[in-house]
Amino acid sequence: MIHIKTEAEIDAMRQTCRLAAETLRMIEPHVIAGRTTQELNDICHAFIIEHGAIPSPLNYRGFPKSICTSVNQQVCHGIPGKRILKAGDIINIDITTNLNGFHGDTSKSFHVEKPTPKGMKICQVAKSCLDAGIRAVVPGARLGDIGWAVEQTALANHCTVVREYCGHGIGREFHEEPAVLHYGKPNTGTLLKPGMIFTIEPMINLGKPDIRHMPDGWTVVTRDHSLSAQFEHTILVTDTGFEVLTSLDDEYR
Ligand code: MF3
Ligand code: CO
Ligand code: CO
């Protein structure tokens, strides 16, 4: 069942999503060579707690840290630890906050110091894929329209979409219905209705779409070791289109 949020729930979602976005903005200047992913985790953890929230990933299905940090060929769910960032790395930082019982989820891929040409390309394409998906959100459209828009953007840029992981409904639960696939056919799938809230979070590879799981039980990597990037927003379906709940500026207005 897909939960249509009430006005009160939408307000609570606006607050938690704003905090998640503020956490991502706060951490950006710390993404520099010499930092460990554990340090990024600890700074985000403290910020989230100081703002009266809980980091949703911590202990979620046994996940041991407060954020996900996925570097270079890591696709998603990287576990913060001793890894030291170096110039030219790309790193996705995925923040989910639980504020007053509501989850807000957003992520972004950053360049460490000076971007490499491949790093620049995959991050630009991943952001374009997210934006194409977001711009397909309007009441009366279907989930397949979002997936189609995302995948066409990836393919037009000679990149590929990871198929094993998807966006998701979000609210009182971290992961709710529906599953938001990043591929699909136009005019198929669940009808979008005002009050639905879900994430769009395509994982885009520079090489083949195939993935592997690391022995830590969480980290997902590209099978061919190509770079992978991801951007994620939490989206409300409005009466006329969409509201990007995890955007802090007027980019999508
Ligand atoms: N934030 C991720 C998502 O976008 C989920 C992370 S689950 C975790 O859905 F356990 F790895 F934190
Ligand atoms: Co998500
Ligand atoms: Co996320």
The topology string of helices and strands comes to HHEEEEEHHEEEEEEEEEE
Broad structural category: alpha+beta
- CATH C-level: Alpha Beta
Straight-line N-to-C gap: 30 Å
Describe the 3D structure.
- The protein is α+β, with helices and mostly antiparallel strands and 253 residues long.
- It has a single domain (7-244), classed as Creatinase/methionine aminopeptidase superfamily (Creatine Amidinohydrolase, Alpha-Beta Complex), CATH 3.90.230.
- It is 27% helix and 25% strand.
- The chain contains four helices and 15 strands.
- The strands form five sheets. Strands 1, 2, 4 and 5 form a four-stranded antiparallel sheet that branches. A three-stranded antiparallel sheet has the order 3-12-11, with no helix packed on it. Strands 6-10-13 form a three-stranded antiparallel sheet, with helices on one face.
- Helix 1 (7-27) packs across helix 2.
- The longest helix has 21 residues, at 7-27.
- The chain is globular, with a radius of gyration of 17 Å.
- The mean pLDDT is 98.
Topology summary:
Elements: H1 7-27, H2 37-50, E1 54-55, E2 68-71, E3 74-76, E4 90-99, E5 102-111, H3 117-135, H4 143-156, E6 160-161, E7 167-169, E8 176-180, E9 197-200, E10 203-205, E11 211-213, E12 220-222, E13 228-230, E14 233-237, E15 242-244
Antiparallel strand pairs: 1-4, 2-4, 3-12, 4-5, 6-10, 7-8, 9-14, 10-13, 11-12, 14-15
Helix pairs in contact: 1-2, 3-4
